[in-house]
Amino acid sequence: MGFKHSHSLGQNFLSDGNLLAAIAADAELSADDTAVEVGAGMGALTVKLASTGARVFAFEIDSRLEEYLRPLEATYPRLTVTFADFMKCEPDFGGDYKAIANLPYYITTPVLFRFLDDPHCLSVTVMVQKEVAERMIAPPGGKDYGALSVAAQLAGDVRITRRVGRHMFDPPPNVDSAVVRIRKTGQTDESVKRLVRAAFSMRRKTLVNCLSGAGYGKDSVLSALSALGLDPAVRGERLTPPQFVRLTGLLS
Ligand code: SAM
To answer: Which one of 18, 62, 83, 103 would you pick to mutate in the ligand 1 pocket, going by the greatest count of ligand atoms within 8 A of its CB?
Structure first.
């Protein structure tokens, strides 16, 4: 096709019409919605989103893709494509929106946290590396459970809607992927986020040591753990997302 894919920009494109339609369906878009897409590529997913009649804001960092994306704006008047680094933009979408993307792997985590943190973002439907998807749905106690699991699960209902093999991408990456959808139900308080970050800052240490190292009083943490019926030597990876919220409340 003459286009030289950039590995460093995570340019692994999709072209299977059924898969693209299924991802758009996972996002539950209707004509009343606003959709935000990070990394439009050649526009394969963008077209499916715009076809729903939704207002679509698509972002693409690589201006070489203008020749594929600009013509789509003429076909879909409710589509706006911005050629910029999404992580450096602070756009106002005029209200609530749903985030949808086949994310470039190198910015998966910051993009996810940005959408989780934004109260205007109603849902997140993203293709991510399979391992990231597993971390997002991981239950407490296992090696996959961490700050991203807690953040995603506190944000709302998280599920893997489909698993996608590497052969579905052009060029195929070295990893398999999955689509994760988070239907957000609320916002997580900054104080909870701070505590969760501290709890997973040193995975081999006990929760008490992690939290006291981050400035929480050791005695207060011990008495809060006791009030929650938790072992004083518990590690952060054992606490459920609601327990993190209760612990924050007790320490505030
Ligand atoms: N949506 C297309 C698809 O599904 O075929 C392309 C997905 S591809 C995995 C990721 C796209 O994100 C690439 O086109 C890449 O150039 C773009 N991209 C990478 N970093 C970006 C950034 N910081 N801001 C906006 N787009 C970015």
So the answer is: 62
3-state secondary structure of 67: helix
Whether 159 contacts 183, CB under 8 Å: no
Nearest to 68 by CA among 35, 103, 41: 41
Closest CA to 37 of 98, 117, 122, 84: 98
Give the model confidence (pLDDT) of 85-143 as tens digits.
Answer: 999 999 999 999 999 999 999 999 999 999 999 999 999 999 999 999 999 999 999 99
Domains of the chain: 13-184 (3.40.50.150), 190-251 (1.10.8.100)
Element (H, E) at 152: helix 147-155
Ligand 1 pocket check for 87: Cβ under 6 Å = yes
Q: Tokens in use for 182?
A: 């988070």
Query: Ligand 1: distance of its center to the CA of 155 in Å?
Result: 24
Nearest CA to ligand 1 atom 17: 39
Q: What is the mean pLDDT of residues 20-37?
A: 97
